[in-house]
Specification:
Blueprint: H1 6-20, H2 35-49, H3 70-79, H4 93-109, E1 116-120, H5 123-137, E2 142-146, H6 152-159, E3 164-167, H7 177-184, E4 189-195, H8 207-217, E5 220-224, H9 240-248, E6 254-257, E7 270-274, H10 310-322, H11 330-351, E8 355-357, H12 366-369, E9 383-388, H13 393-409, E10 415-420, E11 430-437, H14 447-462
Parallel strand pairs: 2-3, 2-4, 4-5, 5-6
Antiparallel strand pairs: 1-7, 6-7, 8-9, 9-11, 10-11
Helix pairs in contact: 1-3, 3-10, 4-10, 5-6, 7-8, 13-14
Length: 464
């Protein structure tokens, strides 16, 4: 592992924090475990934590796991000296103010100045609040989303007792607009969920067209940008359909983004934003045992969650102070590096006869013979998905599983995903594919090492 600057930074910052409360009389914690006993437990903890994949390393390129920035880690640990609770100003005065400032910067990234928003413990809970709001504004009406939308939307709809319908996706994993309008013609849809960065493919739904349909049929448009939201900072580097989607995001009714994905934050840190601040009336409540020291609006009055980690807000605020959410800034440049890594991996896959890119097709396959699908589709964010060539989708799936294990044996960790075989030029069925999430800036420099291990693993499985 590289040198970790956090302990040194945290030591100096902790001394500064303790000085802020220096006027208080000294005291001892009870019970005091003693340094030696605590160190033994922490050493045992470290050994247990070794039973993990190396999520922090560039050779981990599987799931959506990005290490928190050292400043985020240090700020989180610093805040834990106080352990603030951002449910109310009583429990987190400074951290609540920092949350408001940090969320304002996230909203500004989408062009919003007037809005209602706050942090949540996860993207799941952030999406729950957006769907709950749809149910409040249009009781009994359905929620619709792409079949490639995160499964949490259907699950949340069930929790909220709202009917949910999946809409077909095209071979790039994007919502089929014609199929969507077919659902909207039924006249009972209250909200459309558009995804800007699907979990499997990083696909970007055609938000511009979705917004037009939402207006036509009188329903809300919610954007789940939990994964892809930050890519608006480098929208000029994306393909034209994705650029158009990000250009329209300011017209959505609500947006969810996860700072604990591309935002360099520890888990859990989600964020939900509403364009119309007046929806706050659905949250408002009176609780005499919680609110009694301030007449200002409490974050707890605009959140379904009660206790929320103030440390998460502190870590986010500190990170954004160091790395502002601006186009061309250091934070945006990190996104660009991951994007370039994905494009380079895509390029190599396209040229390698052992692999089949999304929308490409093996030689002789229906997709390869179809002039409408001459080349694999470019990744829309930093996620690359590809299949291994096989005579059937069953053979291709088995090879992918074996390649996954062979890569892991060489220290390269990828992921598996199941998708329609037709998207890879195969005749029917579901095919298991390899998937790589290249979300670390270091992935660009490590692409040679990643490819070397991938190629050797697939030579073992498929031959040269």
């Amino acid at each position: 592992m590289p040198h970790d600057p956090v302990p040194e930074m945290l030591k100096r910052a902790t001394e500064a924090l303790e000085a802020e409360f220096g006027a208080l009389p000294a005291y001892r914690t009870d019970p005091d475990p003693g340094i030696e006993a605590a160190e033994r437990v922490l050493e045992e903890t470290a050994r247990r934590l070794g039973d993990n994949y190396p999520y922090f390393h560039p050779l981990y390129a599987g799931q959506m796991l990005k290490p928190p920035h050292p400043v985020a880690r240090a700020a989180y640990a610093l805040a834990m000296k106080i352990n603030p609770n951002n449910h109310a100003l009583d429990g987190g005065r400074a951290s609540s103010a920092m949350e408001v400032e940090a969320v304002r910067e996230i909203a500004g990234m989408f062009g919003w100045k007037e809005f209602l928003g706050h942090l949540t413990s996860s993207g799941t809970f952030a999406n729950l609040e957006a769907l709950w709001m749809a149910g409040q504004l249009a009781p009994g009406r359905r929620i619709v989303g792409s079949e490639q939308a995160h499964y949490t939307h259907q699950r949340i709809s069930g929790v909220l007792k709202l009917d949910y319908a999946s809409v077909a996706a095209d071979p790039r994993g994007r919502m089929d607009v014609e199929a969507l309008e077919g659902e909207l013609r039924k006249g009972d849809v209250g909200m459309i969920v558009a995804t800007l960065g699907t979990t499997a493919l990083g696909g970007v739904d055609p938000l511009e067209e979705i917004l037009t349909l939402a207006k036509k049929y009188g329903c809300r448009a919610h954007v789940d940008a939990a994964y892809g939201g930050y890519f608006g900072l480098i929208a000029d580097e994306l393909e034209e359909p994705a650029r158009r989607a990000f250009a329209a995001i300011d017209q959505a009714d609500s947006i969810v983004i996860d700072p604990h994905k591309h935002g360099l934050q520890p888990y859990g840190c989600g964020c939900v934003l509403f364009r119309d601040a007046a929806v706050g009336r659905f949250y408002k409540h009176d609780s005499p045992y919680t609110y009694f020291t301030s007449k200002e609006l409490h974050l707890g009055e605009i959140s379904l969650e009660c206790s929320r980690a103030g440390a998460a807000a502190v870590a986010l605020w500190a990170t954004q102070r160091l790395l502002p959410l601006v186009r061309g800034g250091e934070f945006a440049q990190g996104l660009s590096k991951g994007r370039r890594a994905a494009l380079e991996l895509h390029r190599r896959i396209k040229l390698d006869g052992r692999f089949v890119g999304l929308g490409g097709g093996a030689p002789g396959s229906p997709s390869a013979r179809n002039p409408g699908h001459p080349h694999p589709h470019l990744p829309e964010h930093d996620i690359v998905v590809w299949a291994l060539r096989g005579n059937t989708h069953e053979e291709a799936s088995e090879r992918a599983k074996r390649a996954f294990d062979a890569c892991a044996a060489r220290g390269l960790h990828l992921a598996l995903v199941q998708l329609p075989g037709s998207w890879f030029g195969m005749d029917g069925g579901v095919v298991t594919c390899l998937r790589s999430v290249l979300m670390k800036p270091e992935h660009e420099a490590w692409m040679g090492a990643i490819w070397e291990r991938l190629s050797a693993a697939c030579e073992e499985v498929c031959g040269a």
